[in-house]
Amino acid sequence: MYKPKSALVKFTLSSLLLLLILNNCYGEQRFLQTPASYQEVGTGEDIILPCRVDNKKGQCIWQKDRRPIGIHQDKYEWANIRSNSVSDTDCSLLIRKASLEFDDGDWECQVSPSDFKRQDSLTSQPARLVVKVKPRKPRIEYGGSILTGALTLKEGQEVTVSCVSRYGNPPALIK
């Protein structure tokens, strides 16, 4: 006995059920790539802090020194596209014209939960970004002041002079 309508209904219901399952089932969010734990960038240079997420359903957020950073054209932009929105997996941040004042610090890539019921929010390990600043020229100091000329000493007199270079980041090391 042939029942084509019954088989068609079963096939349609099975297909619909499979479609619903596939549409609503996905793995938890997880990092595919996070920024390196230490990076250096020269003052005025651009740098990309990479952050890619598998099964991303939440929103990308960046923090510097535990404070949220907004997306601002010509300063903080999504690295992957020009329209200033984030793609399906890429949360990478482009920092333009790095400066010691605004960009030197610990950065974290975060992704909000995929929905309010899931506990799959993500936070990367802190990535230390050092904005390099050239130090001033080394100078000889004596008694806390710059030594500009000759230092006259009496025989047997001991003094301490220092060779210092200030205002560099990271601090200058003179050997």
TrEMBL record:
Q: What is its main location?
A: membrane
How does the protein's chain sit in the membrane according to the entry? Answer: Single-pass type I membrane protein
List the Gene3D superfamilies. Immunoglobulins (2.60.40.10)
Tell me yes or no: is Signal among this UniProt entry's keywords.
yes
Which Gene Ontology biological process is one annotated for this entry? cell-cell adhesion
Ig-like domain: residues covered: 29-123
For whether the record's keyword set contains Thylakoid, the answer is no
Q: Could you tell me the keywords of this UniProt record? A: Disulfide bond, Glycoprotein, Immunoglobulin domain, Membrane, Signal
Q: Where is the signal peptide?
A: 1-27
| Cellular localisation | Membrane
Q: Name one GO molecular function term.
A: cell adhesion molecule binding
Q: Which SUPFAM superfamilies does its entry note?
A: Immunoglobulin
Query: What's a single GO CC term here?
Result: plasma membrane
Output the PANTHER family linked to this UniProt entry.
Answer: IRREGULAR CHIASM C-ROUGHEST PROTEIN-LIKE PROTEIN, NEPHRIN
- Protein name from the UniProt record: Ig-like domain-containing protein
Q: Taxonomic lineage of this organism? A: Eukaryota, Metazoa, Ecdysozoa, Arthropoda, Hexapoda
